[in-house]
Design goal:
Blueprint: E1 4-7, H1 11-22, E2 27-30, E3 42-45, E4 48-51, E5 57-58, H2 62-70, E6 77-79, E7 88-91, E8 94-97, H3 102-107, H4 113-118, H5 136-143, H6 146-161, H7 170-173, H8 175-184, H9 187-201, E9 211-214, H10 219-229, E10 233-234, E11 239-245, E12 248-255, E13 258-264, E14 266-269, H11 273-276, E15 280-282
Parallel strand pairs: 1-2, 1-14, 2-10, 11-15
Antiparallel strand pairs: 3-4, 5-9, 6-9, 7-8, 11-12, 12-13
Helix pairs in contact: 1-10, 8-9
Length: 306
Amino acid sequence: MKSVAIIGGGITGLTAAVRLKGLGVPVIVYEGGSRVGGVIQSVRKNGFLAELGPNSILETSPLITSLIQDLNLESRRVNASPEAAKRYIVRRKVPVATPTSPVKFFTTPLFSSGAKLRLFVEPLMRRCPADKEESLESFVLRRLGRDFLDYAINPFVGGIYAGNPAKLSVKHAFPKLHALEQKYRSLLVGQLLGARERKKRGETSKHDAKPFSFENGLQDLIDALQQRLGTDLKLQTPVYKVSETRDGWQLTATQHGKDAAFEHSNVILALPAYKLANITLKTRKPADLKLLEQVYYPPVASVVLG
């Protein structure tokens, strides 16, 4: 049996590889750089632990719990301090604590009285046609109003995507939000009924999930995944062409300064859009990945103070 090729050694590629390997499927991960982990990287310096990318995991699914257990990382797990749950948003030059309960929501000065009353009307609104492309900004203004866009969604989106709600697709960037409206016609009704469905699946909402990390930061997770793969990982081997063959796929990559070809039964592409755009895809049905160059990635800087 030929192995499955996974192109990209970030968290997606590594997790897919370890899961497949656990099922008895041979895999090879190709990473163009000298390290794996993608944007996840932890650094210890002068007695401090700094994260250059994400700094925690939300345990929203039993699949996350299963992965941590499978990698024997439970003993290294560190739960976030309760103090870390506090969030503030500035309104009229004053930091206001974000409400964490229905009672606090109706008493917070963060939202106007009109914005709070509008929530009672939200279940009566029509849903958007499922096939219509709508921005997150348009979606929130239509269902919740300007206050929620400015003092809830915009800070949230800025912190996670460093993006503009007017340029983010609600269907593709927030598929669960889109699905709530389509299935229940209302976000509020969807939250209530969706909570029951999540409970049946053993899942937890992001609001209720507890963030955690590890003793050496999220680097512990990356190191454990890398160790599990062992020699099934090829570093400094950037793939630049993927060709469909009669009985599988052929990858063309650069290795040790020379071109090299590798045969596989299947291929998983686990690269960011701007890197996928550099891959030539030769298939029976023509596909041009150059279009992915149009996906905008905003620059982000992490500043760590100690």
